[in-house]
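Appendix B, record 7
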Amino acid sequence: MNHPSIPQHNPNATVHSMEEWTSLSSSVTQLIVDCCFCSSDQLTILDFSNWRELKVIEIGSHSFQSVEVVKIVGLNDLERVVIGKNCFTCEMPNGPNPNRCFTLKDCEKLKELMIGRWCFSRYRVCEIENNPSLEVIEMGEMGWVSNVFHFASLTLSSNPPRIRVRNRLGCVAILPVW
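Structure tokens (predicted):
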């Protein structure tokens, strides 16, 4: 059965296990993480700076649920980031976790950031800065409660000063960025 709330295994993923994660080459250009990866507290900080040549990051649904800090900084070849639903989110008491922070900055070729619903819902900070090629930010899913960065303050700054924000139905809004 292909129910939308059931995560689908990705046989083409480059990472299916913690062993594969720890043995990733620093020269990898495409990082595809299978669904339901690292949902325990094995990792609390996820810093992509080891993989300087990354062009694509794709994270399957229900992954990295205990990660508190995500850093995607200074990856000059990175073009696309796609995060499936229910990632970087775990069941916690009401309210945000003050230690949870997402940073995406200084990625000169990044064009797209797409984040599924219920991701980063307990994060306190979402910082997206200095990604001059960023054209599209897509968060959540129309018609569903999404709660992406539900408790976070959002810092969005870029040059050029306009970014298209697209929802899953293809509607586009052009936002000024201060």
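Remarks on this record: The first strand starts at residue 30 and ends at 33. Residues 38 and 133 are 31 Å apart (CA to CA).
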